[in-house]
């Protein structure tokens, strides 16, 4: 993610879906870039706000992304976007977000709606082909179905209780992104991650 963010040109408007505490992206922004991070965890947003001095928007009337280049907003797509029009952002990032939702298609559709034609997207999610290795991160499994696992999951930063990972088929996610894309590239990373990087269609 660091390499991706550092490769983005200056002056770009960046949407970070599921920004968490901000370290993965905000730390690497250029001064000329404009950034909106959204997340469904108010705790994470408060941590990001404290660390980076970025305001959490509570009202659409507060928005001036040109004057305040790093902004945060509570919620998910599309409701958390504080702008009336779609196709606003030049870049859309979604790192380790899709596994939180049982149906990835509305999330992808909404994210693409926020992206300018010709804009770039970068999606990182769990590699569903490596489910066995990923499940080794669970200290305790309370439920396992064909498409999801729930339990206590260990991260370097601590244990997440009652965490659910939805294992979406990589090929299906790839095909869904292709619907919106002039170009798409997919690659595995570190064994358990899958990266999808592409450019939104210029003509719908």
Describe this structure in words.
This protein has 204 residues and is α/β, with parallel strands linked by helices. The protein has one domain (2-128, 168-200): Vaccinia Virus protein VP39 (Rossmann fold, 3-Layer(aba) Sandwich), CATH 3.40.50.150. It is 21% helix and 38% strand. It has five helices and eleven strands; from the N terminus they run αββαβββαβαβββαββ. An eight-stranded mixed beta sheet has the order 3-4-2-1-5-6-11-10. A three-stranded antiparallel beta sheet has the order 7-8-9, with no helix packed on it. The chain is globular. The protein starts with a helix and ends with a strand. The model has no long low-confidence stretch (mean pLDDT 92).
Keywords:
204 residues, alpha/beta, Rossmann fold, eight-stranded mixed beta sheet, three-stranded antiparallel beta sheet, 5 helices, 21% helix, 38% strand, globular
């Amino acid at each position: 993610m660091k390499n991706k963010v550092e490769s983005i040109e200056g002056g770009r408007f960046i949407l970070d879906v599921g920004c968490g505490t901000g370290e993965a992206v905000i730390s690497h922004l250029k001064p000329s870039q404009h950034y909106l991070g959204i997340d469904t965890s108010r705790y994470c947003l408060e941590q990001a706000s404290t660390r980076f001095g970025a305001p959490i928007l509570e009202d659409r009337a507060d928005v001036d992304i040109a004057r305040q280049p790093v902004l945060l907003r509570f919620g998910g797509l599309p409701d958390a976007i504080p702008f009336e029009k779609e196709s606003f952002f030049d870049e859309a990032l979604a790192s380790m977000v899709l596994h939180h939702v049982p149906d990835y298609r509305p999330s992808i559709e909404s994210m693409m709606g926020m992206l300018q034609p010709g804009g770039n997207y970068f999606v990182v999610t769990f590699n569903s082909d490596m489910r066995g290795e990923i499940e080794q991160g669970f200290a305790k499994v309370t439920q396992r179905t064909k498409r999801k696992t729930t339990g206590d999951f260990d991260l370097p930063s601590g244990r997440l209780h009652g965490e659910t990972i939805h294992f979406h088929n990589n090929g299906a996610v790839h095909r869904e992104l292709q619907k919106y894309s002039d170009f798409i590239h997919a690659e595995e990373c570190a064994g358990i991650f899958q990266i999808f990087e592409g450019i939104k269609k210029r003509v719908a």
